[in-house]
Amino acid sequence: MRVIVCGAGRVGTGIARRLSREENEVTVIDQSRDLIRTVAERLDVRGVVGNGAHPETLEEAGAREADMVIAVTYSDEVNMIACQVAHTLFNVPTKIARVRAQGFLEPQYSDLYSRNHLPIDVIISPEREVSEAIMRRMSTPGAFEVTSFAEGRIWAVGVKLRDDCAIINTPLRQVAELFPDLKITIVAIKRGDRMWRAHSGDQLEMGDQIYFIADRNDVQRALQIMGEAARQARRVILIGGGNVGLFVAKGLEKLGSMKIRVIEKNRKRAEFLAEELERTIVLLGDGLDRAILREAGVSEAETVVAITDNDQVNILSSVVAKREGARRSLALINDRDYSAVSEAVGIDRFIDPRATTISTILQHVRRGRIKGVYSLSDGAAELVDAVALETSPLVNKPLREAQLPEGVMIGAVYRDGEVQMPSGDTVINAGDRIVLMTMRENVKDVEQMFRVSIEYF
Q1: What is the distance of C-alpha 217 from the center of its chain?
Q2: For 106-164, what is each residue's pLDDT tens digit?
């Protein structure tokens, strides 16, 4: 596949790295000569210096032969025009644009993106994606990773095992025997820097990071078994009242009797938040100020969420809040180099907006009947939600006969409104939703399983 990525920032570089690893032909456009030089040196991609919205730049990047344009520059307008030019002049089949300004995303303006106006196939809104990710993390505070598939009926959860976990030093095959009515499948294990597909004979150790796929109704019980049965917070402090803070506060208000405080240091923004929010108290001040944190009731707060646009402020304010008595902290961190620091200083969880955006983009890059994709451990593996077609090699045979690649494991099957945990005897039907884990090297195999192609006949 030939892909043009407009923008060599964190997201653009991340998606270019992922696609080039999979032997796609990738060209990256950016106006910064230094960024293009760095990307071209570090990745197996071609670089073009220029503005991605300009026809001559897109033509130099190979737009006439491109299968996809992914526009993720820092300018919404450049991203939208790049897609328009790619469609009108070069007839590029798929156009994806990142759009941050919420005015462009209001429902009453949705006709803007029709093929007769701005022909953008997929709009990515990082703020909304990140807000949803934060809400999921807050609903399962014991997990470091949470995402959902199949209209929310199937959840995928990442947990770090502590010494009081009930299934440490137990072969995975015995977990199913100990809890036969628990609808979960452990699909991947990360120990140190190594990550692999889980096998029935694997024994879990303290400190392992495991990923499991489950019926959403069994997630809390599974976390309890793993020693992570923390309750959802009832008192929350949000540090930062930008778009993410506003979306999260509105989402929390819908949950009911929750005490919510937002700390915002910009007076005009704080006044706007106070008008927009119904049951949230907005405090004008700096999230690093202990006096403001105490006024917000930090000593009684179960969770403090630091979501300003500054990584250092998010890390430091989370640390200060924990020392002032907050039970848990969650920080928005854009630079992955800070992730190790955040854990070392006691931050309980962090959100990586880049990883969230890349996962959303990959959902539309993947070929076949792919409904959802979520990237794990900086691309070491992926969770995939796909529809089984009549032509799929998985259909109409027991899974033990399906000859799945070594790095692929099916975690759940969604059929007729019911979630089923797979076994060797499970027979996949056409139309079933399959949620699986695949290691990076087997992504192409998974795409083949769910492709609409004559090749299966």
Answers
A1: 21
A2: 777 777 777 777 889 989 988 888 998 899 888 888 888 999 999 999 999 999 998 88
Q: Cα–Cα distance between 326 and 261 in angstroms, integer?
A: 13
Q: What stretches of 270-356 adopt beta strand conformation (E)? A: 280-284, 303-306, 328-332, 349-351
Sign of CA dihedral 371, 375, 376, 382: positive
Residues in Cβ contact with 114 at an 8 Å cutoff, skipping those fewer than 6 apart? none
% of the chain surpassing 70 pLDDT: 98
Q: What are phi and psi of 426, to 5 degrees?
A: -65, 130
Concatenate the DSSP letters of all residues of 128-166 into one string.
HHHHHHHHHHHHSTT-SEEEEETTTTEEEEEEE--TT-T
* Bigger pLDDT: 370 vs 7: 7
Mean pLDDT, rounded, for 242-246: 93
Quick check: helix, strand or coil at residue 408?
A: strand
Domain 235-326: give its CATH architecture. Answer: 3-Layer(aba) Sandwich (3.40)
CA distance 212 to 73: 34
Strand order in the sheet with 68-71: 46-49, 25-30, 2-6, 68-71, 94-98, 122-124
Determine how many CB atoms are found less than 10 A away from the CB of residue 108: 6
Q: Which of 36-45, 82-91, 112-121 has the lowest mean pLDDT?
A: 112-121
Element (H, E) at 186: strand 184-191
The residues pairing with 27 across neighbouring beta strands, listed in sequence order, are: 4, 46
CATH topology classification for 130-146+156-216: Alpha-Beta Plaits (3.30.70)
Return d(Cα 280, Cα 249) in angstroms, integer.
7
Q: Are 99 and 79 in contact (CB under 8 A)?
A: yes
Contact by Cβ (8 Å): 198, 189: yes
Q: Which two tokens stand for residue 58?
A: 């897109």
Which regions of the chain carry the CATH code 3.40.50.720? 2-124, 235-326
